[in-house]
Amino acid sequence: MLVLEGEVEFTFENEEKTVVKSGECFVLPKHLMHHCIFRKMTVGIEGVYEKGL
Q1: Structural domain boundaries, residue 30
Q2: Under 8 Å between Cβ of 39 and 11
């Protein structure tokens, strides 16, 4: 996902936290357990890609 505006806070299963802000992008592994909070109005571009497509 590419964050165009705003920010997303992620908490992962090991309680580690990270914040992704406007202008940054990220990839989450397929089976990574996480919880996300949108603290501001957030606009992003998201894509889902499968191997072999």
Answers
A1: 2-45
A2: no
